[in-house]
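Input.
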Amino acid sequence: MMHDFDGIDENDKDNSSYTAYNNQDYTGKGDEVNASARAESVNYSPDDPHVLVVGGGPCGLLTAILLRERGIHVTVLEKFPVRDKWSTKSYSINLGERGRTALLKAGLLDEVMEAAMPRDEIVVHDGISGRITTIIPKYPPDVALSRPDLSAALERVLLKKYQTKVRRGANVKELVLKRDDEKVEVILDNGESFVGTHLIGADGKWSAVRESVPYFSQQATLRIEPSWGVHMTCPTIPSKWNKTSTVIFKPHKDAKFYVICAPLPSGACSITMVCFDETLERYPWLEPPPDRQKSWILEQVKRKQYYEDGPESDDIELGKKLDEMFREELPALLESGIGMETLKTAVIHPRVSWLEMVMHRDSEHRQRDDTNDDGGDINKPETARADSSTHGDARYALGGIALVGDSCHACTASLGQGCNLALESAVSLAESIDAVCSNGKITVDELSDAFILYGRTRPDDARNVQAASSAASRFSYKW
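Output.
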């Protein structure tokens, strides 16, 4: 089945799966969402821009909201069939100046704050005595929340205000450029396809959009750093901690790791033991798995089994090893109230990585020599969409295709800037649209020009943050 447009029509409203989707009150405002979703959908001309946004995480959702705010028709495709929920794959987000400013510019800071809590200080404890060694105030406070809660807040806005729902279970199999009418077709693994004038890849570090377009994939290199996390979830926030603080426990210097604890608005607490290659000298059993995607899949299976059948022996064994380790290195952490219930949720994640985008000369020449006017598979370099000789080094955009968020500038979690940077990129794309399309209705050609402007101007700032984060991934245990 091919879809050219994706408005909410009467058939959608009567569809049982759509009704069930709306009835899930995930923000406490289900009635408002349901009422708004029944509003009359906007009508679009076939000549109007229609943007396919691949990826329904925070960056993709904010991008969709900002496009809809500018009167642009949007379809959001998300590969996961159900909405994200908290697990040890999830992480706590601290929105600092970049993230707060992005949401403020988008007019969404208040909506997000309803699902968040302030994070006003970093408190560092000696791991042995529990004594506070350092307090770093945060003013203005960061905005702290979980990734699932941020996604839910943005999705509610997209549905309530713009009557645009996320198409879930939409796993991209192939991208095809339709040369006859300058459109791009996204083909899913279930045989469905969606056609739009423009395409945005907001589908993360392992972006299917990026890897399907040689102009992008030939620029991309995944850099691995010598650090990783062991993630746990404590069901409650220990009473000794300030709920608005990030709490860090540091062992003696020879241990070469530290533990960072982030209270969540839900009343739970995200706990991550940050390890380095040097950590393995004393604790070789903390060796991380090699493949992040496979580890996440395994983790989801283990979590399902845990809640249905109780913890597996491997979970308990890792928890026991961590308990023994912390009794020696971080007794203050255990004394604060972290016990086996938390330790047996531990999952060792792979080494952290970040995405470097560098233009290669052979890629540039291949795009410049493009003279094929026939339609074809976008995987073939000769059918790529734009002539980079007219656009310069537009690393994040190619004609009517753009990358945002982790799909083009994934960074390590060391400085907590990944989500901040992604939200900022969504706003940067919107600002490029405003700069190019200052008067009246936005045309297809104007939107393409805006994509290229974004693709040229955004990379430098993002790279600076990536460089700082990757450096911190190598040396954080030394501070």
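The radius of gyration is 23 Å.
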